[in-house]
Amino acid sequence: MNPVIEDSVNPGARPAGEASEAAAAAHVREIFNSIAPRYDLLNHLLSMGLDRRWWSRAARSFRDVLTQPQARVLDLCCGTGDMTAALLAQRPASAEPVTGLDFSAQMLDRARVKYSTANALWVEGDAMHLPYADGSFDLVTAAFGFRNLTNYAEGLREIYRVLAPGGRIGILECNQPDGLSGFAYSIYFHQVLPLLGGWISGDRTAYTYLPTSVARFPRPPQMLQMMAEAGFVDRAWDGYLLRAAGLYRGVKA
Length: 253
Description:
This protein has helices at 21-35, 39-46, 50-60, 63-66, 82-88, 105-114, 152-162, 179-201, 204-216, 220-230, and strands at 73-76, 98-102, 120-124, 137-143, 163-174, 232-240, 245-252. It is of the alpha/beta class.
């Protein structure tokens, strides 16, 4: 895979060094459609089962919103629906459905099968151009998908737009730790993961892109600053597992 091209003006995902946001978005969609059949298995194996705990922990952070039956909830980059399901686990039985949105049709097909009886709406759409009016949601989440957006700052502004005043944002994402744990993490992520993921999925390119996307993603101080620039207040980051992942939280002023 070609080196990542850094873009200080419009930072975002750039698989294989794609120069334009449109080309990058198309490439990312192609990657996730291609690995959809083995996506769940690989997630659980490569995270050693911690992904389930992280989804649940992130969902519990918003229990005060989720337990309100009329709360409107959107889960962006929902993939095969596991974060959406974690949010639903905190919802009353009679609550408004949770909307799971993703731009990969193959991922959504699997979400519909896995959670066929869930109180969820599955929508194919672009997180950079959400098909919703201003102020449509009380909570917007994204779990391990936000870093695949082609422009992080614009993605945050789009989330801010569709949130109602006082609405909450929750972005669960990978992070590159520092120190000795960061060194071990780097070896696993950049050497072991592409080999293992490529072997199981048959697509090593996809599992070379994933660690590259984490390396490109802003570190917590920069991400919190971007959230501030988008208009969010009460910003915080909760690190999980030696800071290898964490939850970004904020409120629409």
